[in-house]
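In the laboratory, one determines a bound structure by crystallizing the protein with its ligand and collecting diffraction data. In a computational setting the workflow is compressed into a single prediction: the sequence and the ligand go in, and a structural description comes out. We illustrate the idea with arginine.
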Amino acid sequence: MSEELNSAQFVSLFRSVAPYINLFRNKTFVIAFGGKAIAGPLARTLAYDANLLAALGVRLVLVHGARPQIEEELREKGLPSQIHKGYRVTDAETLDCVIDAVGSVYLEIDALLSQGLQDTPMANSRIRVIGGNFITAKPLGVLDGIDMQYAGNIRKIDAEGIRAQLQINNIVLLSCLGASPTGETFNLAMEEVAEATANAIKADKLIFLTDSQGVADRDGALMSELTVDSAERLIESGDWLSPDIRRYLPSAIRASRSGVGRVHLIGFQEDGTLLRELFSREGVGTIITRESLEILRDARPDDIGGLVGLIEPLEAQGILVRRSRELLEREINRFSVIEHDGMIVGCAALYPYGEKQAELACLAVHANYRRYGYGERLMRRVENQARAVGIECLFVLTTVTSHWFKERGFIDQSVDRLPEERRLVYNLQRRSKVLSKPIGSPG
Ligand code: ARG
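The predicted complex, in structure-token form:
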């Protein structure tokens, strides 16, 4: 984004961000990233953004990996790199390399987080970074006949210890190393540390920074939202997924299933993705939730505020006829709404006239949500409601969107054929087109 914000944009941006600041205060986020994210040019701004979140009162656990750094270390020592089932076969010599690499990445992140940002108001926000023996590991043992040696997985997370640190506003920084009760060090998969930690401390969010923008579909298009079920299906078929997504998705899914409300996969290759994902409605990566964020349902009285917000701009443009708040309140049970992540983004109403005819009225979808087929779903719902009560013909009055209805089976009809009761209130000045559609049989 190169264009500068004008003052109105600045103000509206700030207002749009404020609710998230409020929402995230005292919430617990686990942010996980591989060694690649920290080797890149954006490590510094990433650390800055993490500090920013902490300064806003987010309780933050960072979990880092160190794969490329370990590879580098092995190369220098002339040791082979052997991965089995996603885990590194870790003999004693390899473990030394792992410890060196992880240790230096850890210190690097620690330093990045500690940098005072001179000449910025963040300069004196002192946020402490804490590490510790929060992870107890156990050996993976022998997998398919291969002795994994010092490769391990998680036995236990000291949730209480971590929470105590978060409580006093410290950032907890965890690496992919863990010790066993016998005092041995084990090499762990970063994504499993992140998953286990998020579960143990009952994090509100688990965020993976990845080598791609998020989870892409077969054509490479970003899937902004996934339910955990559809994410699961992807693992089976998605051979196009990027290496990071492939690695992290199973942990993301398990975390979501065990109660982490929101799991995000976002890219680290562009500046500011973390902030854009967290502080906007649409985000820039993929969010995984247990239930869909979209709900199609009957409207309720407490939707009226949201409904007004949705239809007012369309009334102002003359696209919808003006409805008073009182009218909405009276007729709220005629409305269906689509809710997206808690916001009313679409509505439609059904007004029967006599036994056989009904009007599909006030079909509206928020400008930012026009490409998801919400209009279609609302229309279908209203059609089904009409059909269920024996209506045979649905009509609409529209000034500017007749093509949309025509593409969906409506045909022109003369005003004279409207039910009398409706004709009497037909607004001659609006000169709406009347379209109708027989809906007798299902289809
Ligand atoms: N900012 C909101 C959150 O952090 C919504 C993010 C939506 N993200 C997405 N990829 N659709 O929960």
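Residues 124 and 228 are 41 Å apart (CA to CA). Keep in mind that any predicted model is a hypothesis to be tested, not a measurement.
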